[in-house]
């Protein structure tokens, strides 16, 4: 089950060339089993036909303010009453102006004016139009109304220019929708998360590392942001898209990750160390590529700083500290030991030997161990696992566990 399954989306499409992207958005929503009803302005129909959106959504498209069909006579009122959220994408400068001034001169504007549900606006227009003081003032007014704004992207525009004003990527808009439907129980919390592997250079061509993909840490960052947190993600070298709305700090080595974490941690309410940091590094990195000699190669290794143990020794009162342990045996025993030795509030233990719980897979099955209990979770997606972890952290915060043993 996804966060959008069963959600009733009233999707407003306006007269922009970006309307063709809205068709893909509708397809994505339906794929997630959201229930989509499309309202089009007259100008939108000049770019994409209503038949396209009807076929993609599986529902009739609404566009006529004075439709005489009996079940559509009060569409301007009933559409929003029968929906969970209004999503206007693309939102042109004209539509934004209409909504900002409370006009009711077409079906979409009237439906939004009558809405008592969240409204999400996704602007798309030429850069000069977007930055004009009138548009800026209209957007500010919509924000004052409590509408949610998905910032437009930057890049090549249909007019041939390059700049701000592109319709945002679907993943960015999706995160806004998911945030609307998510309890904001981390609102106001500052959270630091680490993710991915580190790389310890051996020579200019080689390094020591591990199989961590960073997917679990990125899932934690996305889900925390949806729950209202201000999130900073310190990530090793991974091949994942940046989580929307998250401050991303990129590092490569364990030393770089340690420095970034120690710089950020003092101001954080919660620190979650999900990165797979290399325990050792070569004593020295060769200046040139090490050549084959026909004989074995001996590596002299030295320990990297234990970031989590250092955080446990130095954390401030009230800060919640969470660790991860990727284990191949004695999961509970290793988890309990690390919880005590590193002064943690919670440790998340997972089996790296499992075919669906190890590195670089989409699912995970973990055990949450705190100072009172061990809670095994079922096999879940990494995002669902992340939400279960945040549920437990919220409980710990309510119980004052951030002050334990500091």
What does this structure look like?
The protein has 406 residues and is of the alpha/beta class. The protein has two domains: 8-180, Rossmann fold (3-Layer(aba) Sandwich); 190-287 and 299-403, CoaB-like (Rossmann fold, 3-Layer(aba) Sandwich), CATH 3.40.50. It contains 13 helices and 21 strands. It has helices at residues 19-31, 50-57, 75-81, 93-100, 107-113, 127-131, 133-144, 170-180, 215-226, 254-264, 307-314, 331-341, 382-398; strands at residues 8-13, 35-40, 85-91, 119-123, 148-149, 153-156, 162-166, 190-195, 200-201, 207-208, 230-235, 247-250, 270-273, 280-282, 301-303, 320-327, 346-351, 363-364, 366-370, 374-376, 380-381. The strands form six sheets. It has an eight-stranded mixed sheet with strand order 12-11-8-13-16-17-19-20, with helices on both faces. Strands 2-1-3-4-5 form a five-stranded parallel sheet, sandwiched between helices. Helix 1 (19-31) runs parallel beside helix 2 (50-57) and helix 3 packs across helix 5 (107-113). It is elongated, with a radius of gyration of 25 Å. The two termini are 39 Å apart.
